[in-house]
Amino acid sequence: MNARERILAVFKGRQVDKVSWNIRHEYWYYVAKKSGKLPKKYEEASLADVCMDLGASWRCYSGYFVKTAVEVSYEDDVQFNVERNGNIVRTRIKTPVGTLQEVAKTDEWGLSSRKLEYFFENR
Predict the structure, then answer these.
(1) Three-state DSSP state, 62
(2) How do 88-95 and 98-106 pair as beta strands?
């Protein structure tokens, strides 16, 4: 079995020959691609191509291959606002009972972030 056949078999409840494994290569791939440091054999490859070459399954994240992995909806009285200012991302969620805010700082590539302010705080 190849990686694709193995993953599909698992979802169908069938036996597989070995445990599938997965790599988290998105960050490495995009940073190396933007900085011109991808290995030559991967210069024209997609994320999926890299995984297939390594015999790993690939992860399907929102924004990479699909619009979203999980469809989430809210009533009309809930509003989302995302503001980007350089590497600072401010997300506000306005609800009938108040507004929640989260602030994150992204890395220079915009691929990874850390929270500076959380939606909720312990008091």
Answers:
(1) strand
(2) antiparallel
The partner residues of 66 in beta bridges, in order of sequence, read: 62
Tokens of 88: 């600072």
d(CA 117, CA 11): 38
Domain boundaries, the chain: 3-54, 79-117
Q: How many helices (H) and strands (E) does the chain have?
A: 3, 4
- Enter the pTM of the model: 0.57
Q: Quick: pLDDT tens for 95-117.
A: 999 999 999 999 888 878 899 99
Residue with tokens 């440091």: 37
**Looking at the chain, how many residues does it have?**
123
DSSP 8-state code for residue 35 = T
Which of 79, 101, 103, 100 shows the shortest CA–CA distance to 89?
103
Structure letter (DSSP) for residue 40: G
